Amino acid sequence: MKKSYSFILSLAVLMGISGMGSVSAQEGIDEQKLIEVGKKLFFDVNLSVNKKQSCASCHDPAAGFTGPDPEINTAGAVEPGAIGERFGNRKPPSVTYTGESPNLSNDYYNEALGIETWAGGMFWDGRATGETLGDPLAEQAMGPFLNPLEMAMPDAQLVVQRVAKSEYAEEFEAVWGPRSLDWKKDPEGSYERIVRTIAAYERSPEVNPYTSKFDLFYDNARDAKKDIKLITTKGFGNSNRPKGVPLGQHWTDYRGLGLSDNELKGLAVFNDSQRMGADCASCHTFTEGSAGYPLFTDFGFYNLGIPKNPDNPFYDMPEKWNPDGEDWIDYGLGGYLKSSGWDAAVYEPEMGKHKTPSLRNIDQRPSPDFVKAFGHNGFFKSLDGMEGIVHFYAWRATMDDGGMGDGGMGGGMGPGGGMGDGGMTPNLSLFPPPEVDENRIAMKPFNFMMVGDYLVAFLQTLTDGYEPSE
Ligand code: HEC
Ligand code: HEC
Known about the structure:
By secondary structure, the chain is mainly alpha-helical. It has 13 helices and 4 strands.
């Protein structure tokens, strides 16, 4: 990490205050009790200015710890703050499986790109860097309480005071010790203990249970000594491994381990960087986290060319919060680096990049018809279908590759697609142009009409709480 990094400024960006006290690591702390208190903090609406909003108001477990309101998801995808007419500018990401993100830094080796790149931190733009507390997840939790567009508390002291007056204050002090919630003498230290307690809950097995259909399959594959990273789309159309395709490379080699044929085909497409593959796993990686299961993120930053979400309510926020009005552009990591004082040579190549989210629980919803939003601004409203995010990947890659082969853009399928050309004329305008065109990453084109449904079927295996039917 470069030393020109602006520590104080980053803190100010994050939460509008500075001068945190230092709380030593959680030595001798009862982890289970810590998690229980953390859960109470996460769900406590009293910790917002008008006692109406908790962390869970925007990160609802039933929706995979993201936005709980299908109407909002259908439109701007930004949850209102505690003060209802105030809105931030991005879609809430899931808080599950995110606690293993390292601190934000520019010296991580990116295997797919073969160079050192930025990775880590919290938020879509990485601005909860982890520099202040040595833990990006705890540091992230310092933000929402004090963000005027979220829980809107005037200062950290009042947050501590509210916790000190809560029903679970005694439990908190039983975990952290007497006077650990001292809003008069030690507001900074107390606030830090609060956010570390929340982070403990966010990292707990309850929030990260690894109980998806995929996890069961992963266990079975491991027991059978099979490495799922070998799976390819070689001999894809064959329902048995053709001669010449090495063992482990055909999707049928993974039958009987808990995934259906379609889900296995989806896994093959997800993983393969050649042939029929979509190469999703180059960023949503199979790299195992501390629990021994893939996290589906490299914690890196990329510009996929996602369009603006015209319904983003932030465009209409007063000048105080959005001086650019309708012209506001979400520059992601680059915008953050610029605002925190890095040189143009550092931030320019990062403009428009957002953090790779884990795909775990991407399809978790309270009911099948509940609309979720996808992407940092919630532009996409579905995984599947012509307007879904999976088709966007195929379309974007194909556009950049000369416009052939996505199989789903012309030929009368998309609006405006011409007939009689065998489906080879891409519908150039199916998706609006990228919000930021610079620094876009080249992606692997794939035939959406042929493999899109398999990919979606695979993504749906990542939802926790799976119960095998027999
Ligand atoms: C008003 C809605 C809202 C509330 C309330 C809220 N969040 Fe968020 N949360 C968001 C949004 C939006 C983002 C993404 C913001 C960004 O990237 O700029 C986010 C990002 C996060 C992230 C980052 C995840 C990642 O992978 O980068 C975590 C963790 C998180 N919130 C936890 C919390 C906690 C803990 C609280 C309570 C202290 C909370 N949130 C309250 C909307 C909310
Ligand atoms: C070059 C790296 C990269 C590749 C390859 C990639 N992704 Fe992503 N993915 C990202 C990033 C970065 C984001 C967040 C982008 C944003 O919102 O601006 C993302 C977001 C997503 C989301 C939305 C997540 C959310 O919480 O809203 C889904 C779903 C997704 N990707 C699925 C896929 C699938 C399926 C593939 C393969 C077809 C794929 N990704 C390939 C980097 C990648």
